[in-house]
Specification:
Elements (H helix, E strand, L loop, with lengths): L3 H20 L35 E3 L8 E3 L19 E3 L3 E2 L3 E6 L5 H14 L3 E2 L2 E2 L5 E5 L4 H15 L9 E4 L10 E3 L5 E3 L1 H13 L3 E5 L1 H4 L7 H18 L2 E6 L3 H6 L8 H4 L3 E7 L2 H5 L3 E8 L8 E6 L2 E4 L5 H24 L13 H8 L7 H13 L3 E5 L8 E5 L6
Parallel strand pairs: 5-13, 5-14, 8-9, 8-12, 12-13
Antiparallel strand pairs: 1-2, 3-4, 6-7, 10-11, 14-15, 15-16, 16-17, 18-19
Helix pairs in contact: 10-12, 11-12
Length: 425
């Protein structure tokens, strides 16, 4: 008479045989060896309900033992199969800041100067200048995808860079721009099943142009202009970044994504986007922000390296606007500083004359009609800030080129800024 254990084994094996017979017509994949059934077809060990059965062709049923669909086993690699020579060194777009062959990001508040900074990098690479804010850059072609700024505005900014750095735009034959025909419809990716971002035909068209040029750097200005997903969804963020990672690995270029931080990222100064995956998904991340205190009043910007998978984090770089271009603080000559102050005064007088002709009054006191703040709002991106206009206004009053005049009845004491007699704009 069989023991209880032997009877259980017989019943168990009969159940397995019946199950195999049931799925045999659908897929002949479960060809066990001579090992006991309770070992899952592998040599030794007890039966494990979580372990798929061994198969004859390296295939396992997609749905476990009852699944008819076959999927190949994932390929595995062991170090002995690696090439014997040392692994390749990291290639850089900007040394220790932006790597090639992967994706990096540059975040910052609107109007902080991200686009100008990226254009300065692009022009340096395209003309072989080999320097960007003190970092060594490797020259090469650049593709700049402008999803936010129109062509005329980009032309103005490049012209400012050329004038400041002393080169002609004819030297930029290796700099290529893409501008959408419709800024309202320049989506590169939309959510698909499971939230996975799917490339649009527009993205594939741009990707094909990049594959033809094989640039050293691709700049996207900016993420918000082409991303149609939920910035707080981890799957959407990662799969969107992976579209550009695929581009980077296929062509060997570095990709620099320009982005605005979330409200919390602006408030806490970290520059982080809607969720941490905007930071986690890239290899290196830079953040551009306004300085604090007196430096802020002078329009100083701080460029921070907040993530780098391939090098130590570089220290912050203080930047200032010189001739409409971001330069390392302190590199402007006294003559350039004097010229910049004079240009700010001229712009203040121009704004005052133009707005006064439209019947608008401005005050020298902080409030809704505070002239420096109002004129700073009129300025184009990269122009003079409210603190810069305030200092210009103070100099103009001190030099006697501005005056205060009474508006309406003298008893109300309301005053407005006006040009002093004989001052031309």
């Amino acid at each position: 008479m069989k023991t209880a254990t032997e009877q259980f084994a017989d019943e168990f094996n009969r159940g397995i045989d019946e199950e195999l017979a049931r799925i045999e017509p659908k897929a002949k994949v479960l060809e066990f060896n001579d090992a006991p059934a309770q070992t899952n077809g592998h040599e030794g060990g007890a039966w494990d309900e979580e372990t798929p059965p061994a198969t004859s062709a390296g295939l396992v049923p997609a749905g476990g033992i009852n699944g008819p669909e076959l999927i190949p086993a994932a390929p595995l690699v062991s170090p002995p199969t690696w090439p014997k020579e040392p692994p390749p060194r990291v290639a850089w777009v900007a040394h220790n800041l932006i790597p090639r062959g992967d994706v990096s990001s540059l975040g910052g508040d609107g109007g902080s100067g991200k686009t100008m900074l990226a254009l300065q990098l692009a022009t340096a690479m395209a003309r072989g200048a080999q320097d960007w804010l003190g970092a060594v850059v490797n020259p090469g072609p650049v593709v700049f995808l402008s999803g936010e700024e129109p062509e005329d505005e980009i032309r103005r900014r490049v012209a400012r860079i050329a004038a400041r750095q002393g080169f002609d735009c004819d030297a930029l034959a290796d700099l290529h721009f893409w501008f959408p025909s419709d800024f309202a419809g320049c989506t590169f990716a939309t959510p698909g099943p499971g939230g996975v971002m799917q490339a649009t035909p527009l993205f594939r068209s741009v990707e094909a142009a990049i594959a033809e040029r094989r640039p050293a750097l691709v700049v996207l200005d900016n993420v918000a202009a082409v991303f149609a997903g939920n910035q707080n969804d981890r799957v959407m963020v990662r799969t969107f970044v992976n579209l550009f990672r695929g581009m980077a690995r296929a062509t060997g270029c570095g990709v620099l994504l320009l982005d605005h931080p979330s409200l919390s990222g602006m408030q806490n100064g970290t520059g982080r986007g809607g969720n941490m995956d905007w930071r986690n998904s890239v290899r290196a991340a830079l953040h551009l922000k306004a300085a604090d205190g007196d430096d802020k009043a002078r329009g100083v910007r701080i460029l921070e390296c907040v993530k780098n998978n391939y090098a130590p984090l570089a220290g912050p770089i203080n930047l200032e606007w010189v001739d409409g271009v971001l330069s390392i603080e302190g590199t402007a000559s006294p003559h350039q500083r004097a010229a910049r102050e004079g240009a700010a005064e001229t712009r203040f007088l121009e704004h005052l004359a133009q707005q006064s002709a439209l019947g608008r009054d401005f005050s020298d006191k902080t409030g809704k009609n505070f002239a420096p703040a109002m004129f700073a709002e009129i300025e184009p991106a990269g122009g003079y800030t409210s603190p810069a206009f305030r200092k210009a206004m103070e100099r103009l009053f001190r030099d006697g080129r501005l005056k205060l005049e009474t508006v309406g009845p003298a008893s109300k004491g309301k005053k407005r800024i006006a040009l002093a007699t004989g001052v031309a704009t």
